[in-house]
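Reopening this one. Same input as before:
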Amino acid sequence: MGKNKLQKFSDMEEFPHVFQYTYSALRELSQPFEYKGKWSSFFGNDRPIVLELGCGRGEYTVALARMYPDKNFVGVDIKGSRMWAGAKESFLAEMKNVAFIRTNIEIISEFFAKDEVSEIWLTFPDPQMKKVRKRLTSTRFMELYQQFVRPEGVIHLKTDSNFMFRYTEEMVKANGYEVLFKNDDLYHSDFSDDKILSIKTFYEQQWLDRGLTIKYIKFVMNPKSTFAEPDVDIEYDSYRSYNRSKRSGKDSSKKNTDMDDNLKNVQQLFKARLAGLNWNIQPNGLYDPIGYVLSLGGKRIRPVTALLACQLFSDDLEKAMNQALALEVFHNFTLLHDDIMDKADLRRGNPTVHKKWNDNTAILSGDAMLIKAYQLLAKCEPSVLKPILDVFSETSVGVCEGQQYDMEFESRENVSLPEYMEMIRLKTAVLLAGSLKIGAICGGASEKDAQLLYEFGIGIGLAFQVKDDILDVYGDTSKFGKAIGGDICCNKKTYLLITALEKADPETKAALLSWMEKAQFDKDEKIAAVTGIYNALRVRENAETDMQTYYNQAVDSLRQVSVEEDRKSDLYGLAEKLLYRED
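Same output, byte for byte:
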């Protein structure tokens, strides 16, 4: 099971506007679904009900509900971990005209009574080019829809697939349905500014970025006693769409496997090159600690993202390999000095350098690492030397500025959320952003594309740190790799603490401050008390909302980078892993 899926499933069980019923679960009920024919009691009104079938992340359902508060919207999909995003967003926004059903579309009539639904949206369904019965505009599904869609009800189809669009055209023609509107290049038509049609989901934007046209057809579904399946030959789509094989509607895992293999290959290649660096240099007292700290492992996120950024523009990873090594050496240099300042005894489960040797050794070895990083960085084509040195130097200074702010915040009573976010931008995000930009420059990116990747890194870096703050309080200890509540015990200024202090009423704030002022306390008791305050103030929800916003901004920047979307797959995947990680 993918990371964070269990938590998402747990959340879905708690959302009051989400209903989860498989075919077998429905059959176990001794009576029909509780709101079948009674959705007006759930929504508290008799307004029209609109379904989105195959709603995925629920982006379209939520966007329509915001746009049309005088209608009720229900998103339907079988993938609960995807639907969670829209369910969470609508729950936090306290939207009263949104619901979600996690079930198979084939049994959707179990949830709605005759004439209860006024419209259906089909947004980018799998065209199922080899399985007619699975196409969501096939006559099989038309028979199903008319069981609960009112006479004169409207069906909308938006699709990237020329096959799906042409098939639906033929189905509509064969059954005499009235077409209200159709267009095979929606965003280059007179209707491109229509507010409904202008809603673009994450995957729709990816298809647009690939140069594909978006098709749209809207038709009236009058009741019929018999249906005619169109008997025509339609050319299959020639391109590979996301999660679909080239010439069928079957789900394909090959592409994801290729993505994973490429990422693993890049990681393994980098680890081999890092292990190949020679630190057996005199004096041993200076260089042995460097070899030691670099051997302790770690995620190697920054050098790997630099190599992936290079790979967007060049298949020759050697163009950025020395720079990736420089970034990892620099990152570990900062950790060496951080451990001294924090008086940390362990790093990745092993003694820190200043504990294994002494403070002076750690300081001097760290200084040598910074110099070695610059030497590695300079091993590049002369044409890119100045720009990468400029980015690296600016990044290095930013990390120092962020560390200074972090130290100052420890002794400051009041720290605002904007100040905190600026601190983590400098301390955490700029190094990830700088790594991406340096890799892109080495690969031959334009100045615009390199900057877009920098902005992608800033967004992911901010989301990463907010996630880290959440995990320290709410993480699973067995997966997080350390005991939870460490930030609470040391009164560390985090997104959660700062937000709680800003949101709390005087009484709650006093209780929170009293725990922060205690010099002696029971660790478990303090963690439980402060976490209880966080829960009451719902600061976790605030953090998750902002985390998602930073992630969305990052993805939007990556979308704009002017290379094929397929080449960006590893960066999209890595970003998602960082956001939904549990450790």
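So the earlier flakiness isn't reproducible anymore. For the record, The two ends are 15 Å apart (CA to CA).
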